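Tutorial handout. Part one gives the primary structure; part two gives the three-dimensional structure as tokens.
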Amino acid sequence: MRTIREKIIHITVLLSLFTAALFIFSCSDSTSPETGQGQVKITMVDSPAGYDEVNIVVTRVEVHKADAGSNDGWIVINNTTATYDLLLLRNGASVVLGDHQLDAGRYTQIRLIIGTGSNVVVDGVTYPLEIPSGEQTGVKLNHSFVIEDGLLYELLLDFDAERSIVVTGNGQYKLKPVIRMTPVVISGSISGKINPVSAAGFVYAISGTDTSLTIAEPITGSFMLMALLQQTYRVEVFSADPAYNDTTITNVIVVAQQNTNLGTINLSIR
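Part two.
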């Protein structure tokens, strides 16, 4: 399997022409929440990985009400089957997994029910992606949140495809999801543009042990790191082309529900 640095050289022009709106799938209700209800909106983004595609078939999205039974406490917020290539969900692209009214109260879990057909494409070859218990109990994510009367709760799921896929000794691919969950109300983003575009920059936002990664778009050089907690970061840019020097920008402040634009980052020639 090629590394991320090798893979970026082979990214096609077609992928770069897609816009974030192309990837947004919404199942939102058009009506306002009724009295005693609020709204939940769950959006998914991803980090790059050294694969051609990582396709996940989601048949249903549910949340679990606190203090309810383990079997009867699940509430469906999206039951429309859709397939998502996780590797397209970067640099501002996202997909809405659920946008639904809920009774006010506390909820403790999110569950993604995975259908048949999920796969990973490696060097042009498609392999089935095994997701243990995906169709039965689903992928369960522990996250406690409160729905308030008349208010919207927004949550970002940052899916790390690179760390989530495990290759077994017999060549099988298994998904063991590594997902970072960040409420929109306490998160922001960092964006910018790498120059020259040919430098093919890898961009990291680092704060303590918290690290997020993206790859600058191969045609425009633009990038966006999403679902970042409100705090100060160190942004490191590395080039896939050894002809260019790496660079670091310190004291980059992320403010909740805002984007910090770093403008054009120029990489010098070695």
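Part three, for discussion. The radius of gyration is 19 Å. The chain is about 5% helix and 55% strand.
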